[in-house]
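Dear colleagues,

As part of the handover before I leave the project, I'm documenting each prediction I ran so the next person doesn't have to rerun anything. This entry is a single chain, and its sequence is reproduced below.
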Amino acid sequence: MKRAVVLLSGGLDSATALAICRADGFEAYALSFRYGQRHEREVPAARKIAKSLGAKEHRIARIDLRVFSGSALTAELEVPKTRSATEMASGIPVTYVPARNTIFLSYALAWAEVLGATDIFIGANAVDYSGYPDCRPEFIRAFEHLANLATRAGIEGARFAIHAPLLALSKAAIIQRGLSLGVDYALTHSCYDPTSNGIACGACDSCQLRLKGFREAGLTDPIGYAK
């Protein structure tokens, strides 16, 4: 069975990407991060998802992006709430973490090279998302090119592939695909600014996009919300 590294944040998209990786016949090695985010509710969620979906191994890397700040997810900046669809579709919000996916994929690439794997899965989405530049297809293609240039394995003839199976799917389509593969979305956590007891706020961009996806899929989100 071929091995693959899967970036697993604990959210809806990455859980679906892990399920797709397993369905495609890969032995999945899940990788999550404690990166100095304003809350770590997503980390225990990632542990539960990795176990539920049969990851071979799940590792949690510790890095601290607070050293640079620059994002509402790593600094004491206000998380935008109740933004309209038009607002979410224009500009890059303050919740963007500078170079986050570049950093995460670099860690995934390093682990893949150690494992002898050439496949990396990421739950990036460029349809129902907040406009982050590192979720676009151009970025995924560019990183794949870099992976094959910047590694010993690539130089020696291995061909790395960055799989972004959700890239062109709506949130509703992602949810439907995940449910067909047995994803338990009650285990996932997507909120940028949960309450002190870990309840999703229901008003940040991530919560609104998630709720929109369930609504358009004709389903009820299994998690609870503060609002």
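The chain has one domain: 3-216. The chain has a mean pLDDT of 95.

All the best with the project,
I.
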